[in-house]
Amino acid sequence: MEKLISDLRDFAKERNWLKYHSPKNLAMALGVETAELTEIFQWTETEESRKADAATRKHIAEEVGDVMIYLTMLADKFDLDPLSCAKNKMKLNAIKYPVNE
Ligand SMILES: [Mg+2]
Question: Most CB contacts within 10 A, which of 22, 37, 85, 91?
């Protein structure tokens, strides 16, 4: 995770893009990329959405990558590690939604 964060910082810095990377812009970009991922499944039947040919799988992988990039960049603006955030949220979810026995 640290390597990805570092690489994303370098990538933006080398292109002089940091001036565009406000939290607002990154949150908007994250929303756009999430919509692009969602669009892949738009109008598909439920069972159809479970299957993906090689081209669709490649497209899904690219959009997952875009979502991860913007999520990581947004979290980095607040000095947050997305993996730690997810782990912490899972702990809260386990308390909120206990297993019914
Ligand atoms: Mg995209």
Answer: 37
